[in-house]
Design brief:
By secondary structure, this protein is mainly α. The chain is 55% helix and 9% strand. It has a domain of 61 residues. The protein has a two-stranded antiparallel sheet with strand order 1-2. Strand 1 and strand 2 form a beta hairpin. The protein is globular, with a radius of gyration of 18 Å.
Length: 91
């Protein structure tokens, strides 16, 4: 491998609550996991499944689709602004 360039693969990682998780390399598997989490989250009233699965599924899908990525960015900016206003009221 002296003259050959090694292929550098970018590993997709998500960070939830301070922990980092590596996503599968296959795009189809990542999309399937994201969709399965969202569907399972819609059934959150059942035992074992929960509504927490919807945002995690959207987070995984945001690595694949620009529209979902924009929603995620807008919601994170909105949340940061809201927290900033709330902290300024306490002072």
């Amino acid at each position: 491998m002296c003259g050959e360039e090694q292929e550098v693969r970018r590993r997709h990682k998500i960070s939830i609550m301070g922990r980092s998780y590596t996503l599968p390399e296959s795009r189809g598997v990542r999309i399937s996991i994201g969709i399965a989490l969202i569907i399972g989250g819609c059934l959150g009233f059942l035992p074992i499944l929960g509504f927490w699965m919807i945002p995690v599924g959207l987070l995984i899908l945001s690595y694949e689709f620009a529209t979902v990525r924009r929603w995620r960015r807008r919601s994170s900016v909105w949340w940061a602004e809201r927290r900033g206003r709330r902290n300024s009221r306490r002072r």
